[in-house]
């Protein structure tokens, strides 16, 4: 039971469903929003309404967009013959934050998983194969997680693109920037040693 | 209730926001499920990869409870990730163990064979023949062992080249006669000999038949995990 009015209680319940928030932290967040109605609550409500109205999946790459085709796919400058395949939109955003990759993306939305009945169709892999053919792609970079499911998906995509003429590459695995060997797990050290390069 | 053992992680499934329910195969306890708190978190998720060797402590108030696992990584089989065939093998092994074995039923011999097989995959060794023999052991542990020592018709131990699809017993070339085309191949791989890819595929045809016709009905007619067929497909492609 709570003393909050019904509308606010509904907001608290909805906020509590967000990742990282529970009922108590949702209550604190809502209280803060109510206190800062003009500077926080109204702009947030307007932004959320705009996103709710316009947010959709890019029909080309499955990125989150506010138009049918996202800005990256719409930009001719990004058509450099490279497609980076990522598992999730959050991974795409991480790549964009690094501001190193100048090509286009393909968002799978997950990894192959027999346990969860996620197959190639659900991940849009046939669509990726068609894009590689239609867009004249020369390199497909697989930026998938170094997990069993991530690498299974990577091998599957590499097989699917075998006859496409495009080079299929994957991100290197090894010592992270700022990492100390002493703190690394044996798997990372093994991968790093295998991917060593001449200086 | 509490016990500690070392085992191989078979499966992980997210539970709530940060926990995971895992299945671990140990020598002394067999296949056991348990909750790992923080199992989907940044620290533990990389450790909880199928095929990883873990030191686990299982705790529960009552034995019939799901229980919780505390896990410590012992060894990650990372080289498997780089090899598509080994990865398919890992999926087949873990999926079949989850599919066939009853929970909390120890199978020490199968456990040791599983460890050796996964280690061979990780080391980049030639393991497909070992995998076929592992399936033979799995059938035996499931209660459907094949008798490949002597001919079911004549009793001879020589020239055994077929297996009866109904009884799972070996049949010699002479005894097979006109029934040969109705019998399954007895690949030398299943008798411990090294074999080529074709011999391995023949062995998998035989073990697959018994997994389908004997084990599946005993498990409520659940179809075999697709991971096994994907491994067979990949082996066929590499022929």
Describe what this molecule looks like in 3D.
The complex is a heterodimer of chains A (199) and B (239). Chain A contains eight helices and six strands; from the N terminus they run αααββαβαβαβαβα. Chain A has 199 residues and is of the alpha/beta class. By secondary structure, chain B is an alpha+beta fold. Chain B contains six helices and eight strands, in the order E-E-E-E-E-H-H-H-E-E-H-E-H-H. Chain B has a five-stranded antiparallel β-sheet. A three-stranded antiparallel β-sheet of chain B has the order 7-6-8. The chains are: A alpha/beta (199), B alpha+beta (239).
Summarize this structure as a short list of keywords or feature phrases.
heterodimer, A: 199 residues, alpha/beta, Helicase, Ruva Protein, domain 3, Dna Topoisomerase Vi A Subunit, Chain: A, domain 2, 2 domains, four-stranded parallel β-sheet, two-stranded antiparallel ribbon, 8 helices, 11% strand, globular, B: 239 residues, alpha+beta, five-stranded antiparallel β-sheet, three-stranded antiparallel β-sheet, 8 strands, 36% helix, 22% strand
Low-confidence residue ranges of chain B: none
Q: How would you classify the helix and strand content of chain B by structural class? A: alpha+beta
> What string, H for helix and E for strand, traces the elements of chain B in order?
EEEEEHHHEEHEHH
Low-confidence runs of chain A: none
Which CATH C-level class of the largest domain in chain A is it? Alpha Beta
Give the C-alpha Rg of chain B: 19 Å
Oligomer: heterodimer
Structural class of chain A: alpha/beta
CATH fold title of the largest domain in chain A: Dna Topoisomerase Vi A Subunit, Chain: A, domain 2
CA distance, first residue to last residue of chain B: 50 Å
